[in-house]
Design brief:
This protein has 2 domains: 12-72 and 172-344, 3-Layer(aba) Sandwich (QueA-like), CATH 3.40.1780.10; 76-156, QueA-like (Thrombin, subunit H, Beta Barrel), CATH 2.40.10.240. 20% of the residues lie in helices and 28% in strands. It contains 7 helices and 18 strands. A 9-stranded mixed sheet has the order 2-1-18-17-15-3-13-14-16, with helices on one face. It has a 6-stranded antiparallel beta barrel with strand order 5-6-7-10-9-8.
Length: 345
């Protein structure tokens, strides 16, 4: 990118960049805190290259740390139609009245019944224009509530690794693709900034800082690229969130906040705008809608033209974001869910 050229923060094309295929991480660093960390200080505009093992040297002394304690469901299952045709289903999220929003690969019609292992079946209720489907899940003709369904999915399903990790899920992903503090099932993607913590690093962090939790169940919409020319024409996906009382109290104070991940950032900022402690969050942070409550961000490197790279630009601006990404590519940082990270101060 030409350093002198000012990019238009409204144009989706401004958030595009060329990433060599070999920089897409298909496995995480081991140990997790050996991953690279790029630290960008907005006050000095300095970039420091280090590793997650040194993270605590850079976090400001007086700030509250917020994590997302969602837990990833084994949301990919394979079944067949009554005609024998194969179907791949990706669970996305629960809806009222034991209905569920899913993605399906394979042609289906309203009324179709699809069967899976363990006596699980679905009935297709509605085909949505965005490609999602509304279905009901059954086991032996009994309608399933969310918690019962999750138990079955975790028995027969596969972890829904992101589409750019071009391999099947493996046993190691069962731990690698869950955070150390994952508690509340509901996500189909991990809050990946938190995957860099080893038990030792997390313990050291908790010894120095007060840590807080909230829940945002990351949906498949997080991977959806922005397809409109103007970013503000993008229909932002919504995800269920819940913020416990003790976390709300910190957010209502004037204490500085470090959000570990984009999901935490969106949740905090949605709460800051609405004062609602739970519900569906659909906030789109970008350079024209900047964060008001989150002071610092720990995050990974995100897909071109994604709402996540636009969220990063809401902290540092579009030009600086693309400069940082170019430097990360030059320095062979590993990108996306299993990749390296960045701390914005």
């Amino acid at each position: 990118m030409n350093q002198n050229k000012q990019l238009d923060p409204l144009k989706t094309a401004s958030y595009d960049y060329n990433l060599p295929e070999e920089l897409i991480a298909t496995y995480p660093a081991h140990p997790a805190d050996s991953a690279k960390l790029l630290v960008y200080n907005r006050a000095t505009q300095n970039i420091t290259h280090t590793t997650f093992k040194s993270l605590l040297q850079y976090i400001p002394e007086t700030c509250e740390i917020f994590f997302n304690d969602t837990k990833v469901i084994k949301a990919r299952i394979f079944g067949k139609k009554e005609t024998g045709g194969k179907i791949e289903l990706l669970f996305n999220k629960p809806l009222p009245n034991n209905q569920y929003l899913v993605y399906m690969r394979g042609k289906v019609l309203v009324g179709n019944i699809i069967t899976f292992d363990e006596g699980l079946s679905i009935e297709v209720l509605k085909l949505e224009e965005d490609g999602t489907r509304i279905v009901k899940f059954f086991k032996e003709k009994k309608e399933l509530d969310f918690l019962t369904l999750v138990e079955i999915l975790n028995t027969i399903g596969h972890l829904p690794l992101p589409p750019y990790i071009k391999r099947e899920d493996q046993k190691s992903d069962d731990t690698d693709y869950q955070t150390l503090f994952a508690k509340n099932y509901g996500a189909v993607a991990a809050p990946t900034a938190s995957l860099h913590f080893t038990p030792e690093l997390l313990k050291d962090l908790k010894n120095r800082h007060h840590t807080n939790y909230l829940t945002l169940h990351v949906g498949a919409g997080t991977f959806k690229p922005v397809e409109s020319d103007d970013i503000l024409d993008h229909p932002m996906h919504s995800e269920f969130y819940d913020i416990p009382q003790n976390s709300q109290e910190i957010l209502q104070s004037d204490k500085k906040v470090l959000a570990v991940g984009t999901t935490v950032t969106r949740t905090i900022e949605f709460y800051n705008d609405t004062k609602k402690s739970n519900g569906e969050a659909n906030l789109f942070l970008n350079p024209l809608n900047k964060p008001k409550r989150v002071d610092y961000l720990l995050t990974n490197f995100h897909l071109p033209k994604s709402t996540l790279i636009m969220l990063v630009a809401s902290f540092v601006g579009i030009n600086k974001t693309m400069e940082i990404y170019e430097e990360a590519i030059r320095e062979n940082y590993r990108f996306f869910s299993y990749g390296d990270g960045m701390l914005i101060l």
